[in-house]
Structure to design on (244 residues):
């Protein structure tokens, strides 16, 4: 859209703070002075009506004149000649437009033409363990993680397995290398029995945080269990000399 008949000095002009691709203040006039025209190009056409609503009729700093704002109208210069060869499409403009669309897209792209979100490669499995078991034997965390990784690798390459050892629902997250492996894992593991419990498997929604912070009471219980495990009911505080 264009701004015109505003003032002889548009250097102080502030455009509506949308996703602006280009803003140009025209200086082509006799003597090189400002014509009083300006052009602003937005990434999205939805920004234009809002910009017109906010700026049309407003006064600029240091001027008594009001700004007139309207959407630009583009017309063909001269007469149309169908015999003329159409201009070759510029691949650079195509790539630039594609890059702009990617920047404005809310989706977390997986790469290439795959529009599936990256977080869909992560599978959340519930009821894989009882958190109380880890208080008795912390080594079970490693055993359960290795067992789940071994089973999941039958679906495809696994990047990471996380055990949320304090979650009451016994949550495990498995990150696969491909979406297909994650989708296959959901089909295989959902409703499957593991360790006497029926697993609930689904792809991560990209929002839910399953990590649970340890409370002071839980920390005391964990330390007491550890002291019992190593055969020492108490751990003495180090003396200054020992600490040094």
């Amino acid at each position: 859209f264009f701004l015109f008949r505003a003032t002889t000095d548009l250097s102080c002009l502030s455009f509506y703070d949308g996703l602006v691709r280009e803003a140009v203040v025209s200086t082509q006039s006799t003597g090189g002075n400002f014509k009083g025209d300006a052009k602003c190009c937005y990434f999205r056409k939805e920004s234009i009506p809002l910009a017109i609503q906010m700026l049309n009729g407003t006064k600029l700093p240091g001027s008594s004149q009001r700004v007139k704002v309207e959407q630009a109208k583009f017309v063909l210069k001269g007469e149309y000649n169908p015999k003329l060869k159409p201009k070759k499409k510029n691949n650079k403009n195509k790539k630039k437009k594609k890059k702009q669309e990617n920047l404005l897209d809310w989706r977390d792209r997986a790469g290439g033409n795959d529009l599936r979100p990256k977080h869909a490669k992560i599978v959340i499995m519930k009821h894989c363990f009882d958190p109380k078991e880890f208080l008795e034997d912390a080594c079970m965390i490693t055993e359960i993680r290795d067992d789940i990784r071994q089973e999941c690798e039958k679906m495809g390459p696994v990047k990471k397995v996380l055990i949320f050892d304090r979650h009451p629902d016994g949550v495990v997250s498995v990150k696969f290398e491909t979406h297909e492996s994650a989708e296959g894992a959901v089909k295989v593991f959902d409703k499957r029995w593991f360790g006497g419990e029926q697993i609930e498997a689904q792809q991560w929604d990209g929002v839910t945080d399953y990590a649970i912070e340890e409370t002071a009471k839980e920390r005391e219980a964990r330390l007491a269990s550890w002291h019992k495990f190593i055969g020492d009911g108490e751990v003495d505080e180090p003396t200054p000399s020992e600490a040094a």
Remarks:
- The helical segments are 47-55, 91-104, 131-136, 140-152, 179-189, 216-229, 240-243.
- The chain is about 30% helix and 20% strand.
- The longest strand covers residues 158-164.
